[in-house]
C-alpha cells in the first residue's frame, strides 16, 4: 500500500519481543536469525499530522527526525531511548512540553525555536553544562537530575521558572540563582554542596531539597519566609538553628545528621512532619519541648538513643497527642501500640525532582 506523502511517519527499531506481541493470543513465531545488514528492520509509525501529543517512550529511537508535518504538537515524550543529539525540533514552535529523560544526550542545543516551551526534562543523560536555554523565556519547569553538571549557571534569565531540579549531579556551590523571583521548588539533593548560601532572591520558594550533601550548618535562609518544606537530611548538621523566619514550614527533614537536642522549632505553628531518625537524641526533654507544636502528625525518631526506651511509643503519644504516625507505624486508639518487631523503614526520600507528567 502506498503511503500518503502528507502523513508524518516515525521510525523505531522493532525487536523480536515487539514482533511476538503482534501475535497476541497465539504462540510467538520461531526465532529466526537476524536479517542481513542491508535489510530495513525498522517499523513505520504513522502519526496524525494534527496530533497534539506524541508518546514515543521506550522505542529504541536513535535520532529525532520526520516531525516537520506536526504543526499542532504541544507535548513530545521521548523517554528511555537512544538519542544522543537534540535536533529536528526547529519547526515545533507550538511545543509546550518536551521530555528526553534517560537518553544519551551530552549537549543542550537546538532549542532556540521552542519559544513556547514550558516544561523541559533532560534528566538521566550525560550533560556536563547548562547551555542552550537562552530563548526559552516561558519555561516553568526544568529537570536536569542525574547528569554530570558541576555548576549552576545560565538559568537566572528565565523569568517564569517555578521548578529547578538539579539533584544527583556534581555541584559544589549554590550560586547564579539571583533574579529567579518566581522559583517555588529547588532540588539540589545528592550533590557536593558544603554551604547553604546565595538564596536571598528566592523569596517565593516553597520547597528546598538539600539532602545528601556536605552541609554542617543551617544558615542563610532568612529571606525564605514562604518555605513550606525543607529537606536537609544526610548531612553533618549538629544544631537546629537559623530557622526563625520559617513560620510556614510544614515538613522538616533533618534525618541522618548529628543532632542531640530538639530546639528552635516552637514558632513553627504549622509544622506537621518532623523527621529526625538516625540522630543522637537521648533526652525526653527534647520531646517535651515540642508540646507547643500542636499540628505535628508524623515524627520519626527511630535509631536515636531515645528510641531504646521500652515505653518509647507510648511516651511519644502522651507528650504529643496530635501524632498520627510514629516512625513507620500509624497510631491507633489514641495510644500507639508497639508492633511485634520494629520496622527499619526510613521516611520516604523527597523526590530528586518530581518527574514531569
Automatic annotation (TrEMBL):
Residues 1-10, 333-345 have a biased composition (Polar residues). GO terms for cellular component: nucleus. Signal peptide: none annotated. Pfam families: LRR_4. Residues 1-39, 333-357 are annotated as: Disordered. PROSITE patterns: LRR. It is found in: Nucleus. Coiled coil: none annotated. Gene3D superfamilies: Ribonuclease Inhibitor (3.80.10.10). Keywords: Leucine-rich repeat, Nucleus, Repeat. Residues 11-25 have a biased composition (Basic and acidic residues). Residues 26-37, 348-357 have a biased composition (Pro residues). The keyword Zinc-finger does not apply. Cilium-specific protein required for cilia structures. Belongs to the SDS22 family. This is Dynein axonemal assembly factor 1 homolog. It comes from Papilio xuthus (Asian swallowtail butterfly). The gene is LOC106126864.
Amino acid at each position: 500500500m502506498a503511503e500518503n506523502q502528507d502523513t508524518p511517519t516515525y521510525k523505531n527499531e522493532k525487536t523480536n519481543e515487539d514482533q511476538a506481541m503482534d501475535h497476541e493470543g497465539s504462540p510467538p513465531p520461531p526465532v529466526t536469525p537476524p536479517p542481513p545488514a542491508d535489510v530495513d528492520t525498522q517499523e513505520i509509525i504513522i502519526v496524525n499530522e494534527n496530533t497534539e501529543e506524541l508518546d514515543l517512550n521506550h522505542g529504541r529511537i536513535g535520532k529525532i527526525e520526520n516531525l516537520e508535518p506536526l504543526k499542532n504538537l504541544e507535548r513530545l515524550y521521548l523517554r528511555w531511548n537512544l538519542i544522543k543529539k537534540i535536533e529536528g525540533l526547529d519547526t515545533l514552535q507550538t511545543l509546550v512540553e518536551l521530555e528526553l529523560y534517560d537518553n544519551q544526550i551530552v549537549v543542550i542545543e537546538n532549542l532556540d525555536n521552542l519559544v513556547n516551551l514550558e516544561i523541559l526534562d533532560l534528566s538521566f543523560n550525560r550533560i556536563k553544562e547548562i547551555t542552550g536555554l537562552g530563548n526559552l523565556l516561558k519555561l516553568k519547569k526544568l529537570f536536569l537530575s542525574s547528569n554530570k553538571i558541576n555548576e549552576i549557571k545560565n538559568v537566572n534569565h528565565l523569568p517564569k521558572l517555578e521548578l529547578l531540579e538539579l539533584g544527583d549531579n556534581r555541584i559544589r556551590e549554590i550560586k547564579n540563582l539571583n533574579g529567579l523571583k518566581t522559583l517555588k521548588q529547588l532540588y539540589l539533593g545528592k550533590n557536593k554542596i558544603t554551604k547553604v548560601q546565595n538564596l536571598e532572591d528566592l523569596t517565593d520558594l516553597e520547597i528546598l531539597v538539600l539532602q545528601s550533601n556536605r552541609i554542617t550548618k543551617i544558615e542563610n535562609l532568612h529571606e525564605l519566609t514562604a518555605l513550606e518544606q525543607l529537606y536537609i537530611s544526610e548531612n553533618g548538621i549538629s544544631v537546629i538553628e537559623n530557622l526563625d523566619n520559617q513560620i510556614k514550614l510544614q515538613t522538616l527533614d533533618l534525618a541522618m545528621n548529628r543532632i542531640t537536642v530538639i530546639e528552635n522549632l516552637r514558632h513553627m505553628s504549622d509544622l506537621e512532619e518532623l523527621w529526625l531518625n538516625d540522630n543522637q537524641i537521648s533526652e525526653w526533654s527534647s520531646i517535651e519541648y515540642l508540646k507547643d507544636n500542636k499540628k505535628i502528625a508524623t515524627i520519626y525518631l527511630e535509631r536515636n538513643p531515645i528510641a531504646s526506651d521500652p515505653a518509647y511509643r507510648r511516651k511519644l503519644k502522651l507528650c504529643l497527642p496530635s501524632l498520627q504516625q510514629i516512625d513507620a507505624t500509624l497510631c491507633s486508639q489514641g495510644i500507639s501500640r508497639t508492633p511485634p518487631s520494629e520496622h527499619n523503614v526510613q521516611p520516604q526520600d523527597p523526590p530528586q525532582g518530581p518527574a514531569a507528567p
